[in-house]
Amino acid sequence: MIARFSIFTVAILWLASASAVLLLAPTGAHADSIGDVVSVVPQANDQRGGATQELSVNDLLEQNDRIVTTGDGSVYIHFIDDTVLTIGANSEVILDKFVFDGDKAKTAVIQITRGTLRFVTGTSDHGAYQLKTPVATIGVRGTTIDVGYENDRMIYNTVEGVGVLCHASAGCRDVRAGDQPLAINRGGFARATAAEASRMFNTITRSHNILAQRIGRNPGNMLAFARTPGRFQGLAAQRGLGSKGFGQKGLEQKGFGQKGFEQKGFGKNFQQPNPGQKPGFLQRFNQRFAPGGKWRPQKKQDLR
């Protein structure tokens, strides 16, 4: 009797901690995810916290992730508001500050430490996004822009729409599609040379084409593929806790499924009906917390 009481007490304490984890968990599988990797070649890394991992297609990304490509690497990133980034070779980009309300960005800051990228706006208010380099800040007011930064010199071109470039001492300038590409350093604005503009355009275009080939897509429909309705939500659900955070797969991944109970020493005594035919511990847990179930205050007879 004492042994059964002790095991039951341990189970209750463990359930209390498990319930706390569930309550504190995000309510959606992508609560902390801001986007995903659509394509990557041949290698790019994601530095998150103190860890570094090689990126793969369909990986999810979070705020403060630092994306680093190799000398011949590139990556195509899609955010949940359908904004996309093509990051070229030998680049380092920080997904600095992202605040979403549903699928719309309220604030989004991308830092370019080095390299090249192409930025295409999505469904959020264009004013929500800022791209920063050590020499200038770009406010996006249009559709597509190319940016390159290396050795304290930034090259900028508006492909479609308009961008606003702001320099700490030289003020701000509107740059529209068709305007001369600009070069910006710590001293201010200048025109980019034809060689600089051509090198940036060729680098990012080559990256985009190779990334499309990597996933068997035409470069012209990469954007449409990235924006396929439900694609990101499907990826998030595969890696999360289900649509409401309490799916069976999610419970098992968190150690709350049948296998998890067995590993923690709560095996058949808590999963099978006892000799008095009262529901076992795990059965009562599932009745209260499983999807579609309705939580009910525990009745006295459940504790007998």
Overview of this protein structure:
The structure is a single chain. The chain is α+β, with helices and mostly antiparallel strands. The protein has two domains: 2-26 and 240-303, no CATH class; 33-236, Jelly Rolls (Sandwich). It contains eight helices and 17 strands. The protein has helices at 2-24, 194-214, 222-226, 231-239, 248-253, 258-263, 267-271, 281-289, and strands spanning 33-41, 44-48, 51-54, 60-62, 66-69, 74-79, 84-87, 92-101, 104-120, 129-132, 137-140, 144-150, 153-160, 162-167, 171-176, 182-185, 188-191. The chain has a 17-stranded mixed β-sheet that branches. It is globular.
Number of DSSP strand runs:
17
Which structural class should the secondary elements be placed in? alpha+beta
Total of helices: 8
Helix percentage range: 25-40%
Which key features would you list for this structure?
alpha+beta, globular, 17-stranded mixed sheet, disordered N terminus, disordered C terminus, 2 domains, 304 residues, Jelly Rolls, 17 strands
Summarize the structure.
This protein has 304 residues and is of the alpha+beta class.
Summarize the SSE layout with pairings:
Layout: H1 2-24, E1 33-41, E2 44-48, E3 51-54, E4 60-62, E5 66-69, E6 74-79, E7 84-87, E8 92-101, E9 104-120, E10 129-132, E11 137-140, E12 144-150, E13 153-160, E14 162-167, E15 171-176, E16 182-185, E17 188-191, H2 194-214, H3 222-226, H4 231-239, H5 248-253, H6 258-263, H7 267-271, H8 281-289
Parallel strand pairs: 9-10
Antiparallel strand pairs: 1-4, 1-6, 2-3, 2-5, 5-8, 6-7, 7-9, 8-9, 9-12, 10-11, 11-14, 12-13, 13-16, 14-15, 16-17
